[in-house]
Amino acid sequence: MKKFIGYTLLTLILVSCGAESGHFRIKGRLRNFNQGEFFVYSIDGGIPALDTIRVNQGRFEYDTRIEDPATFVIIFPNFSELPVFGESGATATIEGDASHLKEIEVSGTNNNDDMTKWREMANRLTPPEVKKEAEKYIKEKPASPISAYLLRKYFIDCQQPDYKKASLLAKAIETADKENLQASLLAKNIASQQNIQIGDKLPKFSAVDINGKKVSEKDLKGKINIINTWASWNYDSQSIQRMLKRKRKEYGNKICIVSICLDASIKECRRRAENDSIDWSNVCNGNMWKSPILKAVGIATIPGNIVCDESRKIIARDLKADKLEEKIKETLK
């Protein structure tokens, strides 16, 4: 009986310290952030779409089902982001001052402890030095989920992507961790992107949009044609969607668009498209970066885009929102 009681108490202690198996918990306390909310998403399908974390008296707690390790990204009201690495049965604790978000600490697992140390070091460096340190970390610890996050943040989803280096680093991650499907897909998508250059003819592709309509390169019959990626968890890509909606209203069928949604939830993609009154084809199969159309057209970023003329010759790619808008005006003037 005593053994049973002891075992029960030990179980209760373990459960109180961490999330139960099959779950991952994020909890914490932020000074100077009494009430409000921020957002969380997963770049590898840990949760299907953007979710909300509510703050009450500076404290918050978020619990989600998880079987495999996943990378979560928290987005604060000022749009700064904080990576959190999830594991089944683990709890990540976030503490700090909301007025100094760069100094926030995440603890509770080895990966989160390591990322906090890396961020503390990076805060003392210039942007070029940070990029060098990111490359160094990836080369030294290619099997770490931190490496996959650093690869995307500093070599792909940034102001000046370095696809050549990103390809080499992705292959290093893939070699170190054969089961890292994200790195494998990323390497393949980057390779496809490098093979599809400005001046080339848009490759053939075929997909089915969220309304069951078949879509292919033959549907792009505008004076300017655009393929772009977006997701509910990526604000820059949503800004481009809103800009494209305005331009579509202004120029009508002179602009033809096919959008690729990288949400893990087709339902969420459809809801967003309906709420935003998007009247062009949106492709989403819920497989995020595994979507075959990404490899077919050679897009490896979010936001990412390919711009073609009326003959479907590629005239630009991966433009930021303002540059894409300029390109549309220039082509349709």
What does this structure look like?
By secondary structure, this protein is of the alpha+beta class. The protein folds into 3 domains: 1-122, Sandwich (Immunoglobulin-like), CATH 2.60.40; 125-195, no CATH class; 206-332, Glutaredoxin, CATH 3.40.30. The chain has 10 helices and 15 strands. Strands 13-12-11-14-15 form a 5-stranded mixed sheet. The longest helix has 17 residues, at 235-251. The radius of gyration is 22 Å and the shape is globular. The relative contact order is 0.10.
Descriptive keywords:
disordered N terminus, four-stranded mixed β-sheet, five-stranded mixed β-sheet, 25% strand, 3 domains, 39% helix, 333 residues, Immunoglobulin-like, single chain, 10 helices, 15 strands, Glutaredoxin, alpha+beta
Question: How are the SSEs ordered, and which strands pair?
Answer:
Blueprint: H1 2-17, E1 23-31, E2 35-42, E3 51-56, E4 59-65, E5 70-75, E6 81-86, E7 91-97, E8 105-107, H2 110-122, H3 127-140, H4 145-156, H5 163-176, H6 181-195, E9 206-208, E10 214-216, E11 224-230, H7 235-251, E12 255-261, H8 266-275, E13 281-283, H9 292-297, E14 305-309, E15 314-317, H10 321-332
Parallel strand pairs: 1-7, 11-12, 12-13
Antiparallel strand pairs: 1-4, 2-3, 2-5, 5-6, 7-8, 9-10, 11-14, 14-15
Helix pairs in contact: 3-4, 4-5, 5-6, 7-10
